[in-house]
Amino acid sequence: MAAEIQPQPQARKPCLLSTIEGFQEVVSTAVIIPKEDGVISVSEDRTIRVWLKRDSGQYWPSVHHTMSSSCSCMSFNPETRRLSVGMDTGSICEFILSEDYNKMTPARTYHAHQGRVTVVLFVLEMEWLLSTGQDKNFTWHCSESGQQLGTYRTTAWVSGLQFDVETRHAFVGDQSGQVTILKLEQDSCSLVTTFKGHTGNVTALCWDPVQRVLFSGSSDHSIIMWDIGGRKGTAIELQGHKITFSQETKYKKCVADVFFEQTPEWLDSDSCQKCEQPFFWNFKQMWDSKKIGLRQHHCRKCGQAVCGKCSSKRSTIPLMGFEFEVRVCDSCHESITDEDRAPTATFHDSKHSIVYMHYEPTAGNLLTSGTDKVIKLWDMTPVVS
């Protein structure tokens, strides 16, 4: 009697489509051209390149343009084929690409900043060019006239920028770890509010205009989802990275339709809220009880201040954003079920340290640029479909 061997189900994972090499320095920014087998890249080696896929399946440059200084960032608008490139000198150089992407024509140069341009963003609906630099200035220009419309001084130099067309709100993330929301007018702006949730510098921002939520990634290894549209001040913390958000070799996909719980605020107490043992700064209780003070910890599930003995267990809490084991108090550990520990994120090894990512939803392709000076293109449809 023969036994039938059942094939093991294959895990859904990204498929590497192609690699693009030949750069002398790290690629600062690269984007996939929508509805085209093409990629636009700007690099620290001072080059702007447009790569088109040939019949051989390989990508070859149809445009190779060398600038006078390093290219730090860029913004590409596929409707107008307008390419805005931020420079190390503080200028922003604008180009128009031909319909077949074989020619690039210089259009305008903006002298926007006194230091390296960190983020540039073209807003077609407003005909505005938004930019930030290491000079700690956030500026916006009229792309039709080239004139500067306004500027705002930030507390630290900006590393993340997003814009909501409907409300004219700019989201500005900086090196101090805070996210500032500005209301832009034609020639002025006003401060709306400031979010302070990261302990490290903000490395990336992503705005979802449909759900009206803002995602901020930071060097503190966390991603925070800010509920802007709900106006309730809700912030969901997602911890799925072990090192700096922009430098890890693994990228993470979060299940978007999962109902996440807000992480609790850490409570203040002079003694353990479980066993009532004093903490080491509570001299009065230490003297009265003749006990040595203990070190304070916090349960990531309930937020209570606890001692090490009452929080000896560790657990993942994916529904609160903790994909790795974190400290929880003993009572919370008993309440966490196996179903609660079911992961909401999948991890995939890109085989290089990522400095920039771009996702093209039309084809379901992901671009990663690494410290190895290589661009990789991935088919993400097995993962996101």
UniProtKB/TrEMBL annotation:
Main subcellular localisation: other
Record's subcellular location: Early endosome
GO molecular function list: zinc ion binding
GO terms under biological process: positive regulation of fat cell differentiation
Record Gene3D superfamilies: YVTN repeat-like/Quinoprotein amine dehydrogenase (2.130.10.10), Zinc/RING finger domain, C3HC4 (zinc finger) (3.30.40.10)
One cellular-component annotation, GO: early endosome
FYVE-type domain sequence ranges: 266-337
Domain of life, source organism: Eukaryota
PROSITE patterns noted in UniProt: WD_REPEATS_1 (PS00678), WD_REPEATS_2 (PS50082), WD_REPEATS_REGION (PS50294), ZF_FYVE (PS50178)
Each WD repeat, start to end: 20-51, 195-228, 347-380
Keywords, alphabetical: Endosome, Metal-binding, Repeat, WD repeat, Zinc, Zinc-finger
This protein's record includes keyword Zinc: yes
PANTHER family: LD41958P (PTHR46189), WD REPEAT AND FYVE DOMAIN-CONTAINING PROTEIN 2 (PTHR46189:SF3)
Protein name: WD repeat and FYVE domain containing 2
Organism field: Mastacembelus armatus (zig-zag eel)
